[in-house]
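note to self: the first set is below, dont mix up w the second
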Amino acid sequence: MDPIKNISIKENQSVKDLVDQFEESGGFSAKMFADGAKIFKQMVNDNECTKFFSFPACIVATGTRGVIKDMVKNKMVDVIITTCGTLDHDLARIWKDYYKGTFLTDDRKLHKEGINRLGNVFVPNESYGIILEEKMKPILQRIYEQKKEWNTRDLIWAFGEAIKNEPNAEESIIYWAWKNKIPIFVPGITDGSFGNQLWLFWQMHKDFKINLLEDEHALSDIVYSAKKTGALMIGGGISKHHVIWWNQFRDGLDYAVQITTAVEWDGSLSGARVREAISWGKVREDAKQVTVPGDATILLPLLYSYVI
C-alpha cells in the first residue's frame, strides 16, 4: 500500500504540480480528480483515439465557455455532443453580455424586470431570445437559399461560417468548430431558443427540414471507423447518453471521464457512475475510467490547465 502524503502549497506552484499532489494525497474527490486528469491527458495524447466531448448548456452561460472554446480551438476534442442551449448561449454572447447575479434573489422581481436567472447568472431578455431572433432570421434565410434540408452538424457549421466576421466571433465555440471542422451534434435541437427560431422559420418555409437521421449516420461512421474512442462527459442527460449509446456498437469506450454534481442513488444518467455503463457494454471492461464528483465550472478549467 502507498502511504498518504500531505499536500504542500508553494508560491508560483503550477496546476500540474498541484494535481500531481492530489494523486499522492489520497484524499476523496481530489484523488478522483487526479485520476481523471491523468486519464484525460492520456486520451488526448493517444493519436489512435477519437475523442468525444459532451456537456450541458448551462456552463456555456458562464466563463467556462472560454475553456470549451479553447479546447475546440486547440483541437483537443474530435466530436462534440451537446444540447440546444449551448447554441443559444454561445451565439447570444457574441452580441450581448450576460451578468453576474446571485442564487439568493427575488425571482418574481426579476421576471417583472425582464431578467432570466440561470443559477447565479442573470440573462436579460434582450441578451437572449430577443437578440437571437434578430440575428438568426437573416442567417437562416441565407442558409435556406443554399439548401432546404440540413443535419445539425452542417447547420451549426453554417452558423459558424456566418458569424466569422462578427467582432466577437473568436470567442465562440461554434465559430471554432466550423473553423476546425469539429462536428457538433445536437440530438435535441428543438429544445431551446435556437430550435424555436428553426420552428418559427419553418412556419413560412415548409420545405425547410432538419434531418436528425443524417446525424445518426455520421455518428455511426465516426464510431465504426475509430480505432479507439474516449469521452470527457460533463453531467449527463441526452448529451452523455448519445456518446455512450453510439460507443456500445464498437464494444464500448476505451477511455471515459465524467464530471458530475449529481447523485448516483436516484437512477439518473447524470448521477450514474461511468462504471455502470460497463454493464451495458457502453464502456469496455478494461477501459480507463473514472467519475469525478464536483462542479465543472471549477474542475474543467483545472483539467484543461493540467493537460496543457
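second set (the one i keep forgetting abt)
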Amino acid sequence: MTSAPPLAVIIPVYNAQRYLAEALRSVLSQTFTDFELIVVDDGSKDQSLRVIKQVAGSDPRLKLISRPNTGIVGALTDGIDTTRSPLLARMDADDISLPQRFEKQVAFLRDHPDHVLVGSQVLLIDPDASPIGPWAMQTSHEEIDGAHLDRRWPVVHPSVMMRRSAVLAVGGYRKRYDTLEDLDLFLRLAEHGKLANLPETLLHYRQHFGSTCFERTGTQNDIREAIYKDTHTRRGMTVNVPSEAYRAAPRSVLSEARRWAWMALGEGHVATARKYARMILSRRPVSLDSWRLMFCALRGR
C-alpha cells in the first residue's frame, strides 16, 4: 500500500462548470506539489463532471468521487473519508488559490504544532473575476475566536488548511448546521487547538448574487443562532446580547451591487466600481444615491 501524501485538497462541486476549470488549475499549479486533489461531484446537472474528467486525464493527482446530490456536508465528509493525508485543504469550485498558498500553509502548520487550522487573507472578486477589495482577517487565535463569538467572519472556509486528526476529533462537519457548517466546525476546532490566518492574500474569493449566503439569509440566521447556543452551552458561557441584534438583514441584488461598488472604489478598483455604478443607475435612474455613486465612480474616488 502506498503512503498517503501529506496533503489532501477537497473541492465539492455542484453545477460549477463556468469556473471549475480555472479553480482546478489554480490548485494543480501550486508550488507545493505533494498532494492529492479530491473532487466530489455532488450530482451536478450541468457539464461539471465532464470538466473534472478532462482535467483528471492530464493530472493523476486528481481523484474523482461522483455521487447523487446530498449537499455540501455530505460531499465534504465523503472527501475526508476518502483520504488518509494528515492535512486537509479546502477549496470551492469557483475560487482561485494563488500559487504559494499550500506551500505557506503547510510550512505554518509544520512550524506551529499547537495550531489545527490556518487560513489567509482573501481578495473578493465578482462573478467576472473583477477585483472588489481585500477582506482583512484577524491573524491570531485569540482574535479569531473572539471575532467568531462576536458573530463576525474571521475565517474564509475555502482558504483554510486543517489537521485531519483534529477535524475527526471534534466530529467533523455536522449536517444539522448545513450552510453554516464551517462556522460550527471552526468554533469546535478552536476548543481543540489554535486557529490562525496568514497575513498574505492567498485566495481570490468569488462573490455571487446567487450564493447561499445571498439567497438564504433568513435560514442562515436561524442556523447561526442554533450554533451559538450550542457553543455557549458547550463552553459554559451565557449569551448576554439579544439574538435579534445579530440577525443579518435580507440582501437584494442592488444592495449587494452597491456594497461592491463602494468597496471597489475605496480600494482603487475603479473599473469594477464603474461597472456596478452603471448597473445601479440603470435600475434606479431617479435615485440621488445612484447618481452620487456614479459621479464618484467616474471621478475615481
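remember for set 2: The longest strand covers residues 194-206.
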